[in-house]
Design goal:
The protein is of the alpha+beta class. It contains seven helices and 23 strands.
């Protein structure tokens, strides 16, 4: 299967709406996501490939476009991919120094219990942390190098706390969420050419320019296909809309950026280990809500071709945030109209697995095969890039 790596440079703030209603009679303020969902990228890219193929979107062409596997979008600065901050770390903002604490599964003592499903244990701070504190703000994205250091640290010990998001430098290896660009618009009467009364509305876009710095944030994407659209993706060099309001971005093909393959230090640290940590690099869609449905075995025809043969993982615990809604609008003739709302597991969510005894699985090789691959249950969600995962190791909290 051919792979092409793209960098996308937005010309204007990117419109990436959340799931709240917007329109006449529904609401005049458009709300923005903190970062575009994979479906924003997938829809724009497949439309571009269809236009490059002649502009015909009959049923056979649509099926070929759906078969294209798209991964991303990830923040990209100077060829370096950034990943969402993991949910298994808390930062305490002390007077003299910020301190980082890892959240890890903790075995319960005698006469202790919890209301988690049977077989699961809670993920908690170490017992040595006795004082209560309000978690400090952290940068929303980490560089691959910084994330690798966290992934190979089983208990999070001696890890330098990420800086305050407002005090990040260009070389710190962290990135805060893009600033929001708010614009007020009016509806123009086509007959008079003037604005209509009471027809104001507001849009909010993601400003990726990084004020005060020379280079802004680009978007990184990977495109894989074994049909004719793979060759087209390898020759992309054009302007095309990205997101809402048809705002333009420059798309071009580049060499593979740092981050799409498993770092050597992560694969080496995982070799021979049985406790494996999975961090979501993009929001995931699972058939069991917050929990992957494939833990009970893949359904017929759904097993990914990159899944290692005989791989079996037992879920011990997890650190997830509240679910996020996703919807959209279908343009297919057979299902034209609004899409049903689904629940996403947020990016950065962490799952703690164990390899069952007697299973001869090389965790290092597993991480190489599954690094930045989608672990969503449905093959269509995987092709859209939902649920890209990265891997590390863990150990029980003290």
């Amino acid at each position: 299967m051919k792979a092409a790596y793209l960098s996308i440079t937005p010309h204007d703030p990117v419109i990436a709406r959340d799931g709240r209603p917007f329109g006449i009679g529904q609401g005049i303020r458009m709300r923005s996501l903190d970062w575009p969902y994979p479906s924003v990228l997938a829809g724009s890219l497949r439309t571009m490939l269809g236009k490059m193929n002649g502009g015909s979107f009959n049923e056979s062409v649509v099926e070929l476009l759906k078969a294209v596997q798209i991964s991303g979008p990830m923040p990209l600065i100077k060829g370096q991919i950034y990943l969402p901050a993991p949910k298994d770390i808390l930062v305490k903002d002390a007077d003299d120094k910020r301190q980082a604490y890892a959240i890890r599964p903790m075995e319960m003592k005698e006469d202790e219990g919890c209301d988690l499903p049977e077989g699961f244990i809670p993920a908690m701070l170490p017992e040595s942390i006795t004082d209560e504190f309000k978690p400090a703000k952290m940068p929303s994205f980490w560089s691959v190098d910084m994330m690798s250091k966290w992934l190979i640290n089983p208990r999070g010990e001696s890890f330098d706390a990420p800086p305050d998001p407002e005090k990040i430098g260009e070389k710190d290896g962290f990135l805060k969420i893009p600033e929001k660009d708010t614009r007020t618009h009016v509806k123009i009467d086509p007959k008079s050419g003037t604005s209509e009364e009471k027809m104001l509305f507001e849009t909010v876009g993601l400003d990726l320019s990084l004020k005060g710095q020379k280079d802004g944030i680009q978007l990184a994407a990977r495109v894989e296909s074994d049909n004719r659209f793979g060759d087209l993706a390898a020759n992309i060099d054009t302007f095309h809309p990205l997101g809402g309001e048809r705002r333009l971005a420059y798309w071009n093909q580049e060499e593979a950026q740092n981050g799409w393959t498993c770092p050597d230090n992560v694969a080496k640290a995982l070799k021979g280990k049985t406790r494996i940590r999975m961090v979501l690099a993009t929001p995931a869609i699972f058939s069991d809500g917050w929990k992957p449905g494939w833990l009970n075995g893949w359904k017929d025809g759904e097993t990914p071709n990159f899944w290692p043969e005989g791989l079996e993982l037992r879920l011990i615990s997890a650190c997830t945030d509240r679910w996020k809604p996703i919807s959209g609008w279908s343009l297919e003739r057979s299902s034209r109209g609004p899409k049903a709302i689904r629940r996403l597991v947020p990016a950065g969510s962490v799952y703690f697995f164990e390899i069952p005894p007697g299973k001869s699985i090389d965790a290092g090789e597993m991480a190489k095969k599954l690094w930045m691959r989608s672990v969503s249950d449905n093959y269509r969600d995987r092709r859209d890039g939902f649920g890209l995962a990265i891997w590390g190791l863990w150990d029980f909290a003290d």
